[in-house]
Design a protein that fits this description.
It is built from 13 helices and 18 strands. The chain is an alpha+beta fold. The protein has a domain of 76 residues: Dna Ligase, domain 1.
Length: 444
């Protein structure tokens, strides 16, 4: 437990030091692409402490001065599958972003989509004898949360207070400075497969970089793609990547649930490749230019020229209708959305005051997807792009960059996590987390 606490703080301090030097890199380790953004921080802005309990303070306070993407290699289902290939891809993306920025970066904040995320809601309560709530009281109530048995080999990725209650007044974002007799909190804890984190830590280090933070892609994408009202009133973000579709639910500007479906845009491409008997590269091109999920009468007459991979264009040339292409794509997209629906139902999403759903991620750009999602998920659905940040090149403003942009916002204004508070040593949570975060001890 102490190892977890100290090492998360070490990463936060490393991030702070990098920002004071004025530059830090963002790394989105995805199944289809590795994206890297280099951020320069303006010293005149407030450098990234959250305002109260997680509210974003002021303007972003940074500018993107370098951006690069490279095709992801060695990553499957949002997890590192082949270390050497992933290392090469990360090096390529980081070096290209550094070249554009004309500056060297040593520290990166990374996010990933895999790891079989699981959410837990924790509750803690302490007496404060009617005096003014202090920082120490907040620390005590957080340490009073009973940590669940999350399973062998799993590790805590996020642990955030999402609500405070003082006596019978709930919904407080920051109870400090108020008076009461009993202080309670609700905390969201997200655990992932420990091996996935270890592999990312190891890979980043092999690239001669220091890890100054690690986040869930579902969390970062939701933070960038949901507008402020959606984050406040309740909304789900569906981040459709290449190998994984991440699901996150937000309310009161905090993530309260995250999960993932091990299906994504690459599986649609694979279906096209097998269905039309064409290579994956051509299948991806066909999907991008002609893909869709809703067929109309016109699509019967729209023919798509395709060829085989023998190199003999005349011999291989053939044509398929767009209706046939849609007939291949739609069943897989429906399967992904049905899986997402099951995750939302399990999370109790229909009990939230607002049930807005936002689709983002590279695979969300399939024409007609929002209408199909609306029918399957039974809610209001819109397509979401990340918020605009200063200096972001035009090539990086699409939904495929939601996670990278969200990570940039976290770099400037991280939300409060459990380890940002000075927990009394004699009041560590009821169940030890030494086993949970063993990797920190090995890596810091």
């Amino acid at each position: 437990m102490i190892e977890l606490y100290e090492s998360q703080r070490a990463m936060r301090n490393m991030r702070r030091a990098a920002m004071q030097r004025g530059v830090i890199a963002i790394l989105d380790v995805g199944s289809s692409k590795i994206a890297c953004l280099v951020l320069r921080f303006d010293g005149s802005e407030t450098l990234g402490e959250s305002n109260g309990m997680g509210a974003m303070a002021g303007q972003a306070g940074f500018r993107v001065i370098g951006a690069a993407t490279t095709r992801s290699r060695g990553v499957r289902f949002g997890e590192i599958d082949t270390m050497a290939e992933t290392e090469r891809a990360i090096r390529t993306a980081v070096q290209a972003a550094q070249k554009m920025a004309n500056i060297r970066v040593d520290h990166v904040i990374a996010c990933f989509a895999g790891g079989d995320p699981r959410s837990y809601g924790l509750v803690g309560e302490v007496g404060i004898d009617g005096h003014v709530v202090t920082e120490e009281d907040v620390s005590r109530v957080l340490s009073a949360c009973d940590v669940p048995e999350i399973g062998m080999g799993r590790e805590v990725l996020h642990a955030q207070p999402v609500n405070f209650a003082l006596d019978h007044r709930s919904g407080l974002s920051d109870p400090r400075g108020q008076m009461g007799a009993r202080l309670a909190t609700d905390m969201h804890l997200l655990s992932v497969d420990g091996t996935v984190i270890q592999n990312i830590v190891h890979c980043v280090r092999r690239c001669d970089l220091e890890l100054a933070g690690i986040y869930s892609s579902a969390y970062a994408a939701g933070y960038a793609a949901l507008v402020e009202d959606e984050q406040e009133l309740g909304a789900a973000c569906i981040d459709m990547g290449g190998g994984t579709t991440s699901v996150s639910i937000f309310i009161k500007k905090h993530m309260i649930y995250a999960d993932a479906v091990r299906l994504g845009g690459d599986h649609v491409t694979s279906d096209i490749s097998m269905g039309l008997q064409v290579p994956m590269t051509m299948a991806e091109r066909i999907k991008t230019f002609y893909g869709g999920v809703v067929a109309t009468g016109v699509d019967d007459r729209e023919m798509i020229d395709i060829g085989g991979d023998t190199g003999d264009w005349e011999h291989d040339r053939r044509a398929v209708s767009r209706t046939e292409l849609i007939g291949i794509m739609r069943p897989r997209v429906e399967e992904i959305l049905e899986e997402v629906r099951a995750k939302l139902d399990a999370a109790g999403f229909d009990h939230l005051p607002s049930q807005q759903i936002v689709l983002t991620g590279g695979a969300s750009q399939i024409p007609g997807l929002d209408g199909l999602a609306s029918r399957i998920l039974g809610q209001q659905v819109r397509l979401g792009r990340p918020v605009r940040v200063q200096g972001l090149p035009q090539a990086a403003v699409g939904p495929g960059f939601s996670s990278a942009v969200g990570l940039s916002l976290f770099a400037a204004h991280p939300q409060d996590e459990w380890w940002d508070f000075e927990l009394p040593v004699d009041r560590y949570p009821a169940r030890s987390l030494k086993r949970v975060m063993r990797w920190f001890r090995d890596n810091w």
